[in-house]
Amino acid sequence: MVVGRQEAARSANGRVTVDVELVLGDDVMLSAAGVEARLAGTLKARLDRRGRTSVRGKLDVSGGIVSTQGQTLTLESGSIVYNGPITNPYLDVRAVRLIDDRSPPVKVGLHIRGNANNLTTSVFSDPAMAEARALSFLVLGRDLEEGSTGDSNQVLAAAINLGLSRAGGITSEIKRITGLDELSAMAESQDSFAIVAGKRITEDVYVRYTYDTLTTMSALLVRYSLTDRWHLEARSSEYSSMDLMYTFEQ
Question: Residues near 220 by Cβ (< 8 Å), separated by ≥ 6?
Fold first, then answer.
């Protein structure tokens, strides 16, 4: 010991640096957030003298399933890359669904990628098709062109729930395929998130269907224009009603 010099182990408030290497074996499984899959790979973790933890390495995700939007998808490929904070790894996951009762069969899937706190989701298909149709196969198992207004609402709700970057484009595509005049989503309160679809049947008759994705309640409204100012509205839902309405401009 040298007089006047502190031991190195006591520097930095007595803290030490810790390095750990973690190698995952053949029987490590991931079960979280609707994912059931096998994990493999190596991670290196470090705890520095300031108490900060960082992780580096890559985990491969394989041989599993992903449950989303009421469907079970097969995990086609996946990886989780750590290069810093343990809470914000980079994910790249592809999960697919095969519709084999068609000729030719259709394979559709979700591609989820990005940092854990900023993930993006996209839909892909083989053969290639518009994203709205691909999402319909993914959620419903059939082509959007073969469905109904209720199917269109489900597809739009799925696009919004998945946070698809092109949800606006999907809305336009659904309107084009179904011939709807109105298709939108609205939140009237924290406990209400509704999909609205509307169609003008004749010059005087307009029909609107509303489905609340949180309460699973639906409502059908028929609006009949008696004159330019007088309108008759009939609503059928949990409680049915009929109103005579007069409009004016101030």
Answer: 207, 208, 209, 210, 235, 236, 237
Cα separation, 58 vs 42, whole angstroms: 6
Cα 32 to chain center, whole Å?
Answer: 16
Torsion of CA 95, 70, 37, 47, to 10 degrees: 90
Q: Check: CB of residue 77 under 8 Å from CB of residue 66.
A: no
* Gyration radius of the chain's alpha carbons: 27
Torsion angle of the four alpha carbons 167, 170, 172, 175, in this order, in degrees rounded to the nearest 10: -130
**Closest to 15 in 3D by CA, of 47, 44, 45, 46:** 47
Burial class (CB in 10 A: 0-12, 13-18, 19+), 36: middle
The pLDDT tens digits for 20-75 are 888 887 778 887 767 888 888 898 988 888 878 889 999 888 888 888 767 788 88
| pLDDT tens sequence across 77-101 | 888 899 988 888 898 989 999 998 8
pTM of the model: 0.61
Helix (H, G, I), strand (E, B) or coil at 16: coil
Phi/psi-derived region of residue 50, left when phi > 0, alpha when psi is between -120 and 50, beta in every other case: alpha
